[in-house]
Amino acid sequence: MQPVRGTKDLIGEAFRRHHHVIETARHVTTLYGLEEWSTPIFEATGVFARSLGETSDVVSKEMYTFEDRGGDSVTLRPENTAGICRALVSNGLTQGGLPRKVFYAGPMFRYERPQKGRYRQFHQIGAEILGAAEPLADAEVIACGWQILQHLGIDDGVVLEINTLGDAPSRDAYRAALVAYFTQHRDKLSADSQVRLEKNPMRILDSKDAGDKALVAGAPTIHEHLTPEAAAFYAAVKRHLDLFGVPYRDNPRIVRGLDYYSHTAFEFVTDRLGAQGTVMAGGRYDGLVQEMGGPPTPCVGWAAGVERLAELLAETPEASPPVAVIPVSPAEEGPAIALTQTLRASGVPAEIAYKGNLKKRMERANRTGAQAAVILGEREVAEGVVVVRNLSDGTQERVGMPGLLSALAAAGVVDAMLEQVVEGLEEGLGPDPEDAED
């Protein structure tokens, strides 16, 4: 049996990279006052059909949609902003306590051609500020994303590109200009873009077709159609980005095609991932909560692909090396278990060898990646000492309980933070020998 095409197992280094990205994002978003939400991985199909648009590739070609046994149409989530907004409404959180600042992490699903950095089950992290209309919210959520990239050490070569989608009057004027422009070149548009011209012309700007891209290069930009209010909002976002110390550049071709998107749109891009150059993207979506049945609620946020961020990491995070606790025979298993549990309770990763003679148990310790082994034989238990063997260089010494942490620290396993373990070790294994009092 093999994993389904477009999915992959996360094991060893792959998992550590994946976990490091999520935990780093979790840490940084906490600094920004975000709370973590977890929503179901499948929703009623309408949640995504309404939020992503019937003409989008995701809805028309890529969603995993099926009818459940009750006859309801459900869809594995292709993204999570819609689910977050649905949760805000269905949990009655729009009536008070706004803004809500939310972080999420989890798997998403899209049926598309698998390629490097793109899977049918992939993972995203995301940040949303729900219920804040001010341009400061746009700048802060972008700054949060930028700080995550910095903490991951992958900000070098990543560029923030921003644009504005304006307000409703700005977009109405812009749509009219796009329709006029693309109608002149209708016969050169791809079949998909000819449909978009009738239903949602701004989506033509997102086309991946080479012929469409050539036409898009000459299309008008929204900046020529902004109302004074929309222009002032965009200027304020950029001013706040300067205050946060986030570098950026204007890209008038970044768009979102649906009516509930407004004002800021942005992408963090890099040339280190080939064609898949976007590592984080988002914008303001002031009409989405209302689309879910809630009141008008201004929102802004972003999402980022965990696989792409993990691929950019310069190094794979090291696994925490355990301490291998090795009883020489079954008679020492009781004290060995007590020591193992005391170490674990104090925050020290520890493994106990289950069976075999001393040689086999030491071989097992090496396979686990342990840097040190703590060996207990009949004599050691009687004297209240242990043998600490450094598995990196093979040196070993007999130490009393008060000296155990120092010996483990010398082997690179624990640090000074764990000095508080000593008391627990003393209690767990009884009195110390007199010659170890120093």
From TrEMBL:
SUPFAM superfamilies linked to this entry: Class II aaRS ABD-related, Class II aaRS and biotin synthetases
Binding-site residues, L-histidine: 79-81, 110, 124, 128, 256, 260-261
CDD domains, sorted: HisRS-like_core, HisRS_anticodon
Any one cellular-component term (Gene Ontology): cytoplasm
Protein transport keyword on record: no
InterPro entries: aa-tRNA-synth_II, aa-tRNA-synth_II/BPL/LPL, Anticodon-bd, Anticodon-bd_dom_sf, His-tRNA-ligase, HisRS-like_core, HisRS/HisZ, HisRS_anticodon
Keywords for the protein's UniProt record, in alphabetical order: Aminoacyl-tRNA synthetase, ATP-binding, Cytoplasm, Ligase, Nucleotide-binding, Protein biosynthesis
Subunit structure: Homodimer.
Name this protein carries in UniProt: Histidine--tRNA ligase
Organism classification: Bacteria, Pseudomonadati, Pseudomonadota, Alphaproteobacteria, Acetobacterales
